[in-house]
């Protein structure tokens, strides 16, 4: 199905051509991704990957690492922002602990595939070995496979991991070549002192690994990555191969998309960008991937898959308009 065929169909529906604006673009994108004029947006699933970060020891976040596990429990109990938005949009939600610190709580809905208890401090040493990076990628790939096996047509990934805007900024600078003042932001609420430390940590880490990127991209990426980011990259890789429609979340999820596109080119072709986060690096990463977000200026900066989730009703609306009558069926010549 060519873009011209999809456009011709949209223009022959019972409305002035183009009158549903961006909704028509989104409908065309769904038709193109699913190679049909009757795209589906359900059943759908979001998988949230959780992990901790050794770099928190550098004072780059306003929150302690314990919050990661506390929020994982809250998500699993159905009480976090991601849980209520998943419920309200009819999206199946799964939480996967790929590397939090300490023992994981025994919530029934929580899946545990721990590669290690948190990444190392990327300011002092490589955060992950290539082997650990690959293991986390494999966890994400498994989740994409199990979503496809369960019949999910639309999938999204999200994350929970205190400190993870620091590796996300490192990856965004590393993979786009953008300076740190364009990729480092407030995260979950940094003050001026935190922001200054974060800029320095990100700048120095990227300087250390940049030279390895052309010849050994996995080593360079693993050195400044996080386990949940690697898992999201693997999730995207496999979901794209399995031709799922992939909805992107915010800054951290999109840094994982950059990793996936760099290591497995073409992955981003299956992606729809939900929103543009308030984190400055998100726009930089989306630009590099050639993706235009559905929702702009919503000021969201939570992560946890919440941006992807609030875009789901718009995907439903876009799919629904493909069921409209044609102009001639309405008697309009
Ligand atoms: C209560 C709470 C819930 C969250 N849910 C997502 N994040 C978001 O904030 C964290 C990243 O920001 P930083 O790098 O500044 O630590 C990640 O856990 C991300 O998912 C949260 C953060 C907090 C505090
Ligand atoms: O855009 C995001 O994903 C984001 C931004 C700030 C903090 N946590 C997540």
Description:
The chain is α/β, with parallel strands linked by helices and 333 residues long. It has one domain: Nicotinate-nucleotide-dimethylbenzimidazole phosphoribosyltransferase (CobT), large domain (Rossmann fold, 3-Layer(aba) Sandwich), CATH 3.40.50.10210. Helices cover 47% and strands 10% of the residues. The chain has 13 helices and 6 strands. It has a 6-stranded parallel beta sheet, with helices on both faces. Helix 6 (165-176) packs across helix 12 (280-289). The longest helix is centred in the middle third of the chain and has 20 residues, at 130-149. The chain is globular and about 70 Å long. It starts with a helix and ends in a 12-residue tail after the last helix. The model has no long low-confidence stretch (mean pLDDT 97). Residues 61, 63, 67, 71, 159-166, 187-188, 302-304 line the site of alpha-ribazole-5'-phosphate.
Compact summary:
The chain has helices spanning 3-11, 22-34, 66-76, 81-88, 130-149, 165-176, 180-183, 192-209, 217-223, 227-241, 251-263, 280-289, 306-321; strands at 44-51, 92-99, 110-112, 154-160, 245-248, 271-273. It has 333 residues and is an alpha/beta fold.
Beta-strand content bin: 5-15%
Return the CATH topology: Rossmann fold
Task: Give me the CATH architecture, please.
Answer: 3-Layer(aba) Sandwich
What is the CATH class? Answer: Alpha Beta
The low-pLDDT segments are: none
Distance between the terminal alpha carbons, to the nearest Å? 26 Å
Cα radius of gyration in angstroms:
20 Å
Q: Tell me the domain tally.
A: 1
User: Largest sheet at a glance?
Assistant: 6 strands, parallel
**Tally of helical runs:** 13
Secondary structural class: alpha/beta
Query: How confident is the prediction overall: mean pLDDT?
Result: 97
What is the N-to-C order of secondary-structure elements (H for helix, E for strand)? HHEHHEEHEHHHHHEHEHH
């Amino acid at each position: 199905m060519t873009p011209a065929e999809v456009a011709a169909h949209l223009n022959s529906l019972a409305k002035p051509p183009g009158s549903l604006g961006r909704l028509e673009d989104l409908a065309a994108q769904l038709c193109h991704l699913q190679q049909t004029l009757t795209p589906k947006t359900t059943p759908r699933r979001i998988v949230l990957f959780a992990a901790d970060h050794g770099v928190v020891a550098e004072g780059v976040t306003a929150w302690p690492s314990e919050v990661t596990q506390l929020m994982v429990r809250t998500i699993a109990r159905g009480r976090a922002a991601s849980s209520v938005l998943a419920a309200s949009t009819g999206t199946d939600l799964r939480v996967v602990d790929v590397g939090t610190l300490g023992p994981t709580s025994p919530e029934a809905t929580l899946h545990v595939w721990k590669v290690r208890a948190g990444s190392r401090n990327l300011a002092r040493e490589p955060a992950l070995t290539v082997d650990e990076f690959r293991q986390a990628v494999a966890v994400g790939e498994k989740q994409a496979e199990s979503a496809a096996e369960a019949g999910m047509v639309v999938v999204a990934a999200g994350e929970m991991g205190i400190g993870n805007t620091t590796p996300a900024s490192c990856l965004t600078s590393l993979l786009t070549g953008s300076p740190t003042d364009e990729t480092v932001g407030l995260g979950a609420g940094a003050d001026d002192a935190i922001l200054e430390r974060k800029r320095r940590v990100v700048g120095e880490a990227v300087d250390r690994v940049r030279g390895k990127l052309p010849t050994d991209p996995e080593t360079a990426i693993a050195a400044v990555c996080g386990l949940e980011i690697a898992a999201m990259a693997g999730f995207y890789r496999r979901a794209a191969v399995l031709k799922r429609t992939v909805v992107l979340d915010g800054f951290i999820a999109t840094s994982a998309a950059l990793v996936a596109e760099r290591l497995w080119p073409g992955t981003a072709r299956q992606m729809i960008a939900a929103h543009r986060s308030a984190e400055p690096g998100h726009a930089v990463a989306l630009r590099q991937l050639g993706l235009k977000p559905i929702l702009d200026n919503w000021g969201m900066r939570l992560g946890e898959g919440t941006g992807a989730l609030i875009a789901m009703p718009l995907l439903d609306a876009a799919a629904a308009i493909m069921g409209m009558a044609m102009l001639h069926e309405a008697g309009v010549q």
